Amino acid sequence: MPWHARLHLDYKQEAARTVARFRHDGPLRILQSLYPEGDAVCHNVLVHPPGGLVGGDTLDIDIEGTDGSHGLITTPGASRFYRSEGELALQRTRIRLAAGARLEWLPLEAICYSGCQAENRLSIELEPGAELIGWDITALGLPNANQPFERGSYLQHIEVPGVWLERGRIDAADHRLLQSPIG
Q: Shortest CA distance to 94 belongs to which of 51, 129, 114, 64?
């Protein structure tokens, strides 16, 4: 049975402290808010207890930041896209920041296991004066465990609407890409 999990996370500044409020449905949530840098920066760890996605699973992550808020989001481990029998595993992340909001989006890598059919979408909407630093890192297979990415495909979609669009498909059957010196 596929999972469809949703998380909506709002960062707001209350007095001199950034606070995170969230709603979730399914196995996707944040752990308690931490303040190792002081009250101005709210650190959160995004947790998906099943540990990965299989065909048919969908994770929807919606993050908002209001003026003056500063959040940092990471994960306790890599995301995983496991082998699929044909259905797509999908992770959609949407970040919207108001003017004066700051966010650090720093999840660990996404591991694409051989045989996965996966899509990872990141959409970022920034009002003028908002600040974001982030990454989306992908690892193909587990080569050190002798489990290379030999089958399947992965689509990475990163966009700032009207400003930037990066979209690439990595197909394990594309030997020119994956077996070349630059692949």
A: 64
Instruction: Give the pLDDT of residue 183.
Output: 64
Amino acid identity at 29: R
Q: Are 49 and 77 in contact (CB under 8 A)?
A: no
The answer to whether the beta carbons of residues 57 and 26 sit under 8 Å apart is no
Give the pairing type, strands 131-134 and 102-106: parallel
Model confidence at 180, pLDDT cuts 50, 70, 90, reads confident
What pLDDT does 1 receive?
72
- How far apart CA 22 and CA 8 sit, in angstroms, is 5
CB of 5 closer than 8 Å to CB of 58: yes
Closest CA to 121 of 158, 174, 73, 172: 158
| CA angle (148, 172, 147) in 5-degree steps | 10
Give the predicted TM-score (pTM) of the model: 0.94
